[in-house]
Amino acid sequence: MGNRLQGSIDLPLCEQGKLEALNLLSTMERFGFDRIVSSPYQRALQTARIYTEHLDVPLEIHAGLRELDHGDWEGQKIEDLLDADDSGYQQWLADATSIEIPNGSETMQMAQQRVVQAVVEIANIYRNEKILVVLHKHIKALLYCRLKDVDISRFGKQIDESVAPVEVTFTQLCRLSGNLVSC
């Protein structure tokens, strides 16, 4: 499904994704992760398994890390969605609060709360461990918004196409959690 909006469509990792994961193995070693927690979707799990096998660390799955349900947009070519004036996709990327995902299962605010709650829960369960969380680009952008105090309306500017890990500092985690993590 290259260049298609996958969302909650549970497809396996593509060859390019496998190569990207393999190319990051030396970077992953330098981080010194103790555990990996992944979205339940196949493409994320396969990425996480590449890392866990190489790093010899445990792998956990957390449903809260799953990607957004993109409703009617799922499976469509991103280029087509951007070109179609009536799709709403381009408007959504420009201001994610100006339009709901057509037939999506949750609002952007609900999805952001879900991923924030998942990360806080993971931090509480695996205290004193360095965790790699494997998730998807749109749910990651919502997490970035919260970490950087960026309004959800600017979500599109937070989308990161790279698969490289991003470190969340202890200070960010404390702010994210509202002190639900012992800070």
Strand content is 5-15%
Provide mean pLDDT, rounded: 90
Tally of individual helices: 8
CATH hierarchy class name: Alpha Beta
Looking at how many chains there are and whether they match, the oligomeric state comes to: single chain
Number of strands: 3
- Poorly predicted regions: none
Detailed description of the structure:
- A 3-stranded parallel beta sheet has the order 2-1-3, with helices on both faces.
- The N and C termini lie far apart (42 Å).
- It contains 8 helices and 3 strands.
- The longest helix is centred in the middle third of the chain and has 18 residues, at 108-125.
- It is mainly alpha-helical and 183 residues long.
- The chain has one domain (15-176): Rossmann fold (3-Layer(aba) Sandwich), CATH 3.40.50.1240.
- The mean pLDDT is 90.
- The chain is globular and about 50 Å long.
Considering the chains and any ligands shown, give keywords for the structure.
8 helices; 183 residues; 3 strands; 3-stranded parallel beta sheet
Structure summarized in a few sentences:
This protein is mostly helical and 183 residues long.
Q: Strands, helices and their partners?
A:
Blueprint (H helix, E strand, L loop, with lengths): L14 H9 L1 H7 L3 E4 L3 H14 L3 E3 L16 H6 L5 H6 L13 H18 L5 E4 L2 H11 L22 H8 L6
Parallel strand pairs: 1-2, 1-3
Helix pairs in contact: 1-3, 6-7
